[in-house]
Structures are given as structure tokens and as C-alpha cells.
Design brief:
330 residues; alpha/beta; six-stranded parallel sheet; five-stranded antiparallel sheet; 9 helices; 26% helix; elongated
Length: 330
């Protein structure tokens, strides 16, 4: 059973296009709110599974008689529930999964029939998105309504959801402090690749579920580097950091949205000189010292600082760089 948030008015934990799956035995995957609506949605999901009819549900937090008001969710949200069956071609999930697995973005268009319509009247269409049209620093899921005139002037309402593969983070340097960075990024659902040419570093069991590349960065497949949305250079070796920075700078204008270098400003300047670069040669957001001024000195705190900044850049939020704080007079 499939549920999708089709419209939001006012405050809502999730935005239009958020999806959730329900299993007939009660298990679920994903979420459409902060947890306040999911229990009620399970009840509706069981009804849809039994009736095989579309359910269009509205939760109105401005209505004191509505369950979402009692739970304090805020705003008005509309959700469509429909069974996923052979009759509606499983809503195109096979093609959607294949496209995302291959690293392609796609527009997922979903028809929105009236409440009580047979579930087989819901259909999905997959529209590939040319890579050139995807903003480098914008990999967020967005959705909008489509209104098309069909036969006999019937209006065909659809929800178009832009879907992209998970954000890809490259960590250049596989020391102990890289482990919490990789783990936290994976908690966010990002794809993590760890690069380190040193034989004593980058052991696979230290980075579970991450891809570990042991070769010289200058010999790495360029397609692998082009897939990165963000990179953190943190080998604690001046020459290795300079080599990584030199290679990554060539991808900073068209592929990378965020590039960070661990260490204080004076170390940054030494690494740049060794790489034959200036900060202006790096065309994406360049953070050196890496991260935000969140406090703390343990590897987990440093990882949180870097990922918070990286997350903000990729999502287009306002940031205060750590070096700005370091320059402030006491």
C-alpha cells in the first residue's frame, strides 16, 4: 500500500511529494509526518487494502474535531492512499528504482483520481531529467501539481515529484576521525565513498556500507569523482591533502557543490601552496577550516560540525563559516 502527500497548506513536518509504504501485516517504510499521523494512516491503509479503492484523506489542524488538531501537527495536509498491484503496473516502482540505482534523476508523475476511485485508475509516468538541467547544489525532492486537459475537456490532475539519487559524499583520508563522519552521513541516507592510498588506512570493516577506494587519487576513475556532490579532505598528511585538493579543484566548477579541508587557516594555506592553488581556483563552496563553530573537539563533534555545514550548503541554507568566528576579536 502506497501513501503520498499531495498537498500542504500551512505548517507541515513533511512537504508535498513525501511518500510512505505500508505492508498488509502492519510494517511501514518512510513517514509523512513527525509521527503524529502514521498510526491513523495505518487504519486507513487497511481499509484501502480491503476495498481496493483510492482514499483521499485530509488532516486539518485548524479543526478542533480533527485528530491532527489534537496531536498538534499544524497546517492542512492531503494524502492519497492506493494499493500497489499489477493492475496499476505497481505504480512504476521497478523503473523508478532502476533509474535511481543508475544515478539518474527522474520526474515521477502520479495521477490523482477522486476519492473512492478504483486503485487501478491510478497510474504513474516516469520522465527522465537531463543531467545538464539539474542544479549542482539542489538535489532536494520537489513536487508540483500538473493540470492537463484530456479527452472531453476532462481535467487530469497529476502530482509531479522530482526524485534524485542520494547525495554522494567523498571522504579523502581514512583515519579514525573519518569513521564518525562516514557513519553520520550514512544516517542521513547519503552514499559515502572513502579514498585513501595508504595501505594501513581505509580498512573495510572500519567503514561498513561505504565504498572504500585504495588507489592513488590521480588514477581513480573520473566518473566516480564526477558523481560526488561533496568532498572532505582529511588525511592529516600535507602532501596527500594537496594532491586530493588539486584533483578535486578540477571538479569544483561543474560537479562538486561543497569542498572542505580539515585543519586551521595556516595549514590550509600550506596545502594550497603545495597544490599550486589559491582559494579562487576552487569554484564551489570551499570550507577551510572545515565545518561550523558548534564547539567540541572529539571526532564525533568535528564530524557533526562538518556535516551540518555540508548539509546546509546542499540544501541552500544560510551559513556562518568557522573561520569567520576564528577571526572575531575576543
Amino acid at each position: 500500500m502506497f501513501a503520498v502527500l499531495t498537498h500542504v497548506q500551512g505548517s507541515s513536518y513533511r512537504k508535498t511529494g513525501a511518500m510512505m509504504l505500508f505492508h498488509p501485516l502492519g510494517k511501514s517504510y518512510g513517514m509523512l509526518s513527525g509521527g503524529c499521523l502514521e498510526a491513523d494512516l495505518r487504519r486507513h491503509a487497511q481499509n484501502v487494502i480491503q476495498s481496493q479503492c483510492v482514499a483521499q484523506i485530509e488532516y486539518d489542524a485548524s479543526d478542533e474535531s480533527d485528530s491532527s488538531y489534537q496531536l498538534g501537527c499544524g497546517g492542512i495536509v492531503n494524502i492519497m492512499l492506493v494499493t500497489v498491484t499489477q493492475a496499476n503496473d505497481y505504480l512504476g516502482f521497478a523503473g523508478l528504482f532502476s533509474a535511481l540505482e543508475q544515478g539518474n534523476s527522474i520526474n515521477y508523475e502520479l495521477s490523482l483520481p477522486k476519492n473512492g476511485s478504483p486503485c487501478q485508475q491510478v497510474f504513474a509516468q516516469l520522465v527522465p531529467v537531463p543531467k545538464a538541467s539539474i542544479p549542482l547544489a539542489s538535489r532536494l525532492k520537489t513536487a508540483d501539481m500538473l493540470h492537463r486537459q484530456g479527452a472531453m475537456s476532462h481535467q487530469d490532475n497529476r502530482l509531479r515529484i522530482h526524485l534524485a539519487p542520494p547525495l554522494a559524499l567523498g571522504i579523502f583520508g581514512a583515519g579514525l576521525d573519518a569513521q564518525p563522519l562516514a557513519a553520520m552521513a550514512q544516517q542521513l541516507g547519503w552514499q559515502v565513498t572513502v579514498f585513501d592510498e595508504r595501505s594501513a588506512y581505509g580498512r573495510f570493516y572500519d567503514f561498513p556500507n561505504a565504498l572504500v577506494c585504495k588507489g592513488d587519487i590521480e588514477q581513480i576513475d573520473t566518473q566516480q569523482l564526477k558523481r560526488l556532490d561533496a568532498a572532505v579532505v582529511m588525511s592529516h598528511n600535507l602532501n596527500l591533502d594537496a594532491k586530493a585538493l588539486s584533483v578535486l579543484a578540477t571538479y569544483s566548477s561543474q560537479h562538486l557543490a561543497y569542498l572542505a579541508l580539515l585543519g586551521p587557516p595556516q595549514r590550509r594555506d600550506r596545502v594550497l601552496r603545495l597544490a599550486g592553488l589559491t582559494s579562487t581556483d576552487i569554484k564551489c563552496f570551499f570550507s577551510a577550516p572545515a565545518g561550523l563553530a558548534l564547539g567540541g573537539e572529539l571526532p564525533s563533534s568535528v564530524a557533526l560540525s562538518i556535516l551540518s555545514q555540508c548539509h546546509g550548503v546542499l540544501h541552500g541554507s544560510a551559513l556562518i563559516a568557522l573561520d569567520e568566528v576564528m577571526r572575531c576579536p575576543e
